[in-house]
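Course assignment 3, question 2. Fill in each field.
Student: A.L.
Task: Predict the tertiary structure for the chain below.
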Amino acid sequence: MADPSGYTRADRHGGRNMASAGKSATASSGRSRPRAVPRPRQAPRRAAASGHVLIISGLSGAGKSQASKIFEDLGYYCVDNLPPELLDRLLGLRDDDLARYARLALVLDIRAGDPTPAIERARLELAARKVPYDILFLEASDATLVSRFSETRHRHPLQTRSGVQDGIHEERRRLAPTRELADHLIDTSGMSIGQLKERLFGFVPREGAAGELLVDIITFGFKYGIPLEADLVFDVRFLTNPYYVPDLKRLSGLQKPVRRYVMGQPAAGRFLDLVVELLELTIPAYRAEGKARLTLALGCTGGYHRSIALAEELAARLRDLDEASVAIFHRELER
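Answer field:
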């Protein structure tokens, strides 16, 4: 069934891509705004005892429902299309059952009325409770939104007889105050579903000792585009591809037969030795320069065999380092 955001099942299987996957699609992604309310979290996003709250808003068709599903997969309790009047009550429920609702992702948008007053109150209340939070605003170009509504045949919530574009313009006007409250603006105009997952992955707090560098390892397929957030990109297509072995073709790099096949190649072990040596040299320097997060991307043709197998082994080795906290994300695994 098509998602109203325009991210259809075809995207998950390498079908329609909203733009060239290698092209940067975040004209204003990640832009932070100065805030009158003091932020309770430090620059590195670490899991705290108080958890984490994400408030997601933005334009209809920009991908909010898909974002909610992504955060649900990442362990958040998600509520899509929350009426603004219920936000205070839900935060109270969270206080009463922190074990269940420590990580919340809430979608508030124009479907249930103006979300701005509720988000303003939530900022104050979460800051007072010292709860780490982020407010995300998803948007896209008019042409992209019109195309998505045309493809899914969903009706824009503010659409009139004048057509969907007038509804989009009216929604932009009404949500302008909400947009100003956002910590991060994400333009999804050119993003595939994999790129959106990759972008949102960076908002999830992680455990780590003070002073550790957060190392994110992302695996990807070059045929779907290089990750937008990568600091270092490694091409592992020099290894023999398990895809052409009939018994391994349908298995992923998470499964033992594929991992044995990949790691059985002499170049695989030597490659990992060199990458670990590089990171042992650079991680202390990154920390000294104040860098909080380092994103490594390992890519093969489809992002399903070689890159995953190598990334899992690399993560295991890096977790032995005292100065790094490691997380891993396989972008193409669900394709």
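Instructor remarks: The chain has two domains: 9-201, 213-330. The chain has eleven helices and nine strands.
Grade: pending
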